[in-house]
Amino acid sequence: MSKAKAPKAANPEPIPDFEASMAELEQIVERLEQGDLPLEASLAQFERGVALTRACQTALRAAEQRVQVLVQKPGDEAGLAEFEPEGEES
């Protein structure tokens, strides 16, 4: 009895820092806007773009929270959640 092999999921590339992620996103948008890529390549680029966008959003939320902590007046802790740097979940 032969078993059908499931397609291998592409190993996602690691997400670079915020600035590099934004630069890569700009390149992806340019390539997709040209419309010259085959469907599979377009889908792969789109998937990478979504991953980069999510990473950028996460970085921006963390930065915003860090700024809020820095400008917080002493004794005024209302509305702040505990800050957990990326990769250090409890």
Task: Give an account of the 3D structure.
With 90 residues, this protein is mostly helical. It is built from two helices and no strands. The chain has a domain at 18-71: Helix Hairpins, CATH 1.10.287. It has helices spanning 18-34, 39-71. The radius of gyration is 19 Å and the shape is elongated. Residues 1-9 have low confidence and may be disordered.
Which short descriptors sum up this protein?
90 residues; mainly alpha; Helix Hairpins; 2 helices; disordered N terminus
Rg, rounded, reads: 19 Å
CATH superfamily of the domain at 18-71: Exonuclease VII, small subunit
User: What is the fold named in CATH at topology level of the domain at 18-71?
Assistant: Helix Hairpins
Put simply, the count of helices is 2
Q: Helical amount among residues, as a percent range?
A: 55-70%
Strand content: under 5%
Regions with little confidence, pLDDT below 50 for 5+ residues: 1-9
- In CATH terms, what is the architecture of the domain at 18-71? Orthogonal Bundle
Structural class: mainly alpha
